[in-house]
Amino acid sequence: MMGPGPATLMGRHLNRRLVIRFIVSSFLLSKTCVGHNVFKLPLHSAVVESQGSFAASDFISLEATEEAMSSTPVQHSRLRGQPGQGYYLVINIGTPPQKLNVLIDTGSSNLAVGAVPHEFLSKYFHMNLSTTLEESGDVVVVPYTQGMWEGKLVHDLVSPAEQPELSSRTYLACITNSSEFFVNGSNWHGILGLGYANIARPNREVTPYFDSLVATWNISNVFSMQLCGSQEDNVTQELSLVGTLVLGGIDSLLFEQPLLYTPITREWYYEVVITDIAVSGVRVDLSCDWYNKDRTIVDSGTTNLRLPQKVFSAVVALIQSKYLGTIEPPADFWEGKKVLCWPRYNTPWFQFPTLSISLIHTSNTTMNLHISPQQYIRRLEREEDSFLEEDCYKFSIVRSDTGAVLGAVVMEGFYVVFDRESKLVGFAKSTCGSWDSTVLEPHVTGPHFYSGDISKCSSSNGNDVNMAMLIGVYALGSVFLLFLLLPAISWLLQAYQRHVSRRHADESTLLPPIQQRR
């Protein structure tokens, strides 16, 4: 099949950091919610500290029952953002309320905002102007591979700006020092983590914002989001991100059936399990544990679809084999180092294949997310004159050393439900988005019978014996080393007691470094 003319292959490296950390915004035609039923499943106790593998018998049935939601109605909030800089929500903080924009992140759990002037902040939170602020005396430090932020841990009243009545007292980190955290021109002033308390900083005793909201207002422990991707203004031709965040349940106006659920296997990040990946119907054909090396999470704060090294290589090879263009893109395009451009409004989407990701549905069935090339080949904002007559794109499937991540480019094709009450993540076809008629639109299919042993798809399964032996060796070695170092340790502890202050320093082992999440 011949394409509409060769694409312009741009050999230029991108000059800017393409940050696309979360932020959700959408302009709802109506704020009336219809069919606000939460699909609740029988709960079973969760041992949050457990980091081990799971067995097929651990899975709960996904025969959803429709029960009335709490007396508090589902709440909508518009999300906004700039391409490459994430989705943000407008919130009120303190008394009188100060409006600030915060990135929406399902891959972290802290609420943190700038509290001192910064060259990249248009405004910041004035702690001294809030009459309801209570200082804890603690300091939290969150370092990343590149950059960090540090702030005072306080309590104050917080609410979505569009629902000021939903105010709750919650923990807040007031950022007083940072390096390479804020982004010039992004229009956000902080971050709102929607993950579990297990990854909150400095520890799980810091109750995340959504947990406080659920406890204060007795809303269902469910939130959902519709990320619509880049939309072009008809007049200015500028791109912006739009979307919707729904607190307390789901809105049937924002998706098309079926809405299918996959279990959350660990309550820290929203960890799920991939069973297979296919390109235009051709399976990658790797053992399913390869897909979930380290972990697989659903993270609105990650731009790309991130895949373990071996999986990335296999998927890219299949995409290249199914590419129908007359001129092969340069190798650096597939590595995300160069961009690919076509004349405006003439992007040949049909030349690129559809990607399918299979997730666990029940103990013997799976569900498929069918991903359009318009998702994994991400359109860039036009910042230079040379872009005005061209549409340019970046390949948004990238290598990962920290597990698989279903990031924003995947979520933008679906309505995603984070049902924390039932330990499930749901996916359905979104009602927003502009899709080319020559390719399949993103959609969900299933359930499909799975003949293999789903429990073997866990990243830790099959390595338990070796891991136990390794831990034993390390333990014995540590005891011996401790004996040798005991005098030095004693001296260090005494020095620490002389200089310690109420400051919580964090490692980045549980929170993916910023650069790993873009």
Query: How can the largest sheet be summarized?
Result: 6 strands, mixed, barrel
Q: What distance separates the N and C termini? A: 34 Å
Estimated share of beta-strand residues: 35-45%
Find the structural class using helix and strand composition.
alpha+beta
What gyration radius follows from the Cα positions, in whole Å? 23 Å
Give the strand order, joined by hyphens, for the main sheet.
5-6-11-7-10-9
**Unreliable stretches, pLDDT < 50, 5 or more residues?**
1-72, 461-482, 491-517
How many strand units? 31
Count up the helices.
7
- Helix proportion of residues, in percent? 10-25%
Oligomer: single chain
- Overall geometric form: globular
Mean pLDDT: 79
